[in-house]
Amino acid sequence: MPTTLLRIALPTPLYRSFDYLCPSDCLVDHQLPQVGCRVRVPFGRQELVGIIIAHIASSDSDVPFDKLKPIYECLDDTAIISDELLHLANWLSAYYHYPLGETLSVMLPSPINQGKPTAKTCTFWQLIDGIDDITAQQKLPKNAKKQWQTFHALKDNPPSLSDAQIKELGINKAQLTALQDKGLIHARTDDGQLKNPKKPTLQSTPLTLNDEQQTVFLGIKTAMDERQYRGILLNGITGSGKTEVYLHAMWHALALGKQVLVLVPEIGLTPQTKARFSSRFNANICVLHSGMNDGERLQGWQDCRSGFAQIIIGTRSSVLYPFDNLGLIIIDESHDSSYKQQDHLRYHACDVALWRGYQAGIPVLLGTATPSLEQLKLAQDGKLSEYKLIKRAGNAKSATMQLIDIKQGTRSVIQANGQEQNTLLCKSSIWHIKNRLANGEQVLIFLNRRGYAPILMCDGCGWQADCPNCDAHLTLHKYPTNQLKCHHCGFCTHTPSTCPECNSQNLLDLGLGTSKLGEQLHAIFGNPQTTPQTYPIWQIDKDTMRKKGAWEAMYDRILTGEPAILVGTQMIAKGHHFPNVTLVVVVDADLGFLSPDFRSPEHTAQRIIQVAGRAGRADKTGDVLIQTRQPDNPLLITLIKHGYLAFAQILLKERQLLGLPPFTHAALIRAESPHQERTRTAISDITKRLPNLPNLAKSGMIDAPMNKKNNRYHSQLLLLAKDRKTLHTVLSEHWQDMLALPSTKGIKLSLDIDPMGW
Ligand code: ADP
Ligand code: ZN
Ligand code: ZN
Questions:
Q1: What's the pLDDT tens digit per position in 638-672?
Q2: C-alpha 238 – ligand 1 centre gap (Å)
Q3: DSSP character for 66?
């Protein structure tokens, strides 16, 4: 009888699995350890932790029997990776052409990858069923203030509070023990007993959906009731009540006893989302984000897997988590490019979510005001059901948008050194800003460029401050310590006072960043010597909001509604709800339209619409001023006059004509090394290696748009195929050979399926 072997996925860059013997002392209850258990194995001279992916007969192994090695130990008694999760890993590995073992290690929290025990038990405290205020009064002395506080904290947070939450609330163990001794509360651990957490309840009454909202909701509800997959594109303008639709759909899933996964693009949006959900539902809400430490991540992973977490709010990677009983996936701002992972396993969370929804037979809801062209095409091809919300819900009216020609004249200010400086703010924009402030309202000024100025140049000889490590200019950061910084590699140096080439003192800062704009706005609106009425100017970007809690504090300050100017980058453009912001100014709409990246117009328009959505979200009407040097640009005019969808249709036609995604399927092979020539040779060799097929276009070797970055050179090869199958067949047949080519030795090669840009 052939021996049964364990086939194991190991975290190595090799595109294969490995077979091992299972010695008798590694059996679990006299049986082979289950598929999905972790094992510790010898691998060359190392010891690795891997996952059993199959049991196979020794006759099916291509390793001779006498070469097989036994595993050291099995780390789990029962599978910790479900068949469903393994299936996902296999699909990811095949679709993204990424080794299975490494795919699994991307999907799992590091303590799991390191072979640490899963059952780091966390204690949850809760009231014993049936205990209410009356029973508590019989058992707790009136003056035991702290015990009463603890009692109320548990009562107000059903079904339970974890140790960590208890600590956060400032409750200490002594009070818990006292309540426990009195038979009011009990503690439970998370090892399976919490599988059936209390049924979620409504905390507040849902709004009555309008007709448009109701139609979408019914579409989702029907799919859920029929246990069917359905991919839904909810295309609703900002403020049209998408979130309210989410809440209704979530409640339907929760009431069916299912978990709901809500993906959000950024960590900054999670506290807000959580607050909105917890004011509606009494349920276990679990927030997953990149700022968590290993322990927190493991806890979240376990809570999702056990079913304890009922609502899961997370960024991109939560789409790779295990779930006990998932009933609905919602992707908010589904067009956002942060859903695409840009290194290692380069997955797109929307595509993964749709695949998972299909497998699980559940609806997947993609919500956005500005669908990506890929998502619009899927809707046109009938692969997503599209629903539109075209009216703002509640009382708010849509903001009006207006193009302003920068060439018609901008305001200048006098700098500290007495020189006059152009502000890039048009006179009419300034007039509008003034009016809104005088009305007691807030103004948001959007400029997607942080720092003081993107270029420092010598007026004498033309020298420019460039990064020594990258093909890029250094950005001038005048505050707080006058430095030049590279936004690509992090290089940083003091700003010279004279030109390093010709010693001239005439160094000019060219272009505009948020910090310079903030300074100019201060000169116009914040200087008590020149203006009778001054207003605060808040600069909001990655630089100023770096400190922990800074953003939260700023957020609260904005919500006070005090008249002020908010100047910032993308950070303030996304999803926030600032009721008193009534005017939005886009300082330089052309920044993105002129970029060579083919996705740039799409992304720029999405950003403009998104930031415009910040204007007039409450009861005051909003205005959006879009400054441009090309007021006749037909694309821009279409966007303003006819909206994002009309704009997107033009772009789609263009993409179709040019044979670009989503009308073709792309893969980008990148090579990276410290040696320019070797990088180029590697890509040239790879290009030669690929077959010539009628449905496959190859770019040939090209240097990446930023060839040198952090002292490494980047070359690439773009593949465009009419159909997905051609692309994947070619890659399945050749990618592994390419990795083995002699010229690719020592070169970092990567493959990006459905890349965002090139
Ligand atoms: P979006 O997510 O599309 O930006 P929201 O769901 O946040 O929109 O809704 C915008 C505003 O409209 C919120 O203040 C919300 O409470 C309100 N709202 C949404 N749906 C309704 C409704 N059916 N009736 C009344 N007000 C609504
Ligand atoms: Zn010079
Ligand atoms: Zn650099």
A1: 999 999 999 999 999 999 999 999 999 999 999 99
A2: 9
A3: G
Amino acid, single-letter form, for residue 724? R
Q: Give φ, ψ of 40 to 5 degrees.
A: -105, 130
Tokens 């924009």 -> residue: 429
Ligand 1 atom 14: residue of nearest CA: 394
213 CA distance to ligand 1 middle (Å): 10
In a domain, 395, yes or no: no
∠ CA 636-637-638, rounded to 5°: 90
Q: Which ligand is nearest to the CA of 367?
A: 1
Whole-angstrom CA distances from 705 to 347, 544, 709, 757 are 22, 29, 10, 10
> What domain range includes position 174?
122-190
Protein residue with its CA nearest to atom 21 in ligand 1: 393
- Predicted structure pTM score: 0.89
- Comparing C-alpha atoms, which of 635, 564, 559 is closest to residue 602? 635
CB 301 within 8 A of CB 318: no
Please work out whether the CB of residue 237 comes within 6 Å of at least one atom of ligand 1.
no
Closest CA to 260 of 178, 353, 369: 353
Domain edge (last residue) among 113, 137, 155: 113
Report whether residue 623 contacts ligand 1, using a CB cutoff of 6 Å.
no
Are residues 536 and 622 located together in one domain of the fold?
yes
Contact 553, 540 (CB under 8 A): no
Please name which of 645, 524, 646 lies closest in space to residue 585, comparing C-alpha atoms: 524
Structural contact between residues 36 and 322, judged by C-beta atoms closer than 8 angstroms: no
Identify which of 259, 180, 245 has the alpha carbon closest to the alpha carbon of residue 209: 245
CA dihedral 715, 720, 726, 731 (to 10 degrees): 10
Residue pLDDT, tens place only, 459-479 = 999 999 999 999 999 999 999
